[in-house]
Design goal:
mainly beta, 6% helix, 41% strand
Length: 143
Amino acid sequence: MSRRHADVVEVRRRDDVPEQFLWRSRLYQVREVLGHWVESGAWWRSAPSSALIEGDDPARSRVAGADTDLVLAPIPASPKWAQRAWGEPAPDVGAAAGPMTLDDGEREYWRVEARAGRSAAPGIYDLCFDWSANRWQLVQVVD
């Protein structure tokens, strides 16, 4: 049996893997990661994507709920010394900026076996990190 939840939780990670989470004022220690997957949202429904898919001129497309035209602007060329945080050179090519950026509602899920305290029985929990909202949620508990 499983129960669905939408409770905001705090998660501590080690090496990008959930190690502990705080749910309903109880600290749960992750014993094992049973699964990990990423789900993207309906990015194809966004106004910029729809314009590109349908072959419309994205510069003339309207952003849903906005009164301004969608504007594409090139990113200025980076200086020769510029680089990304991980050491790769920054690109010198133009790219879309501003409203063209897509928020696809991507979510990262972790199914973990965890328990609260040493004497508690372990359970299976699904934790979700919502990249759009920048928060963790406990979305399911399996009994």
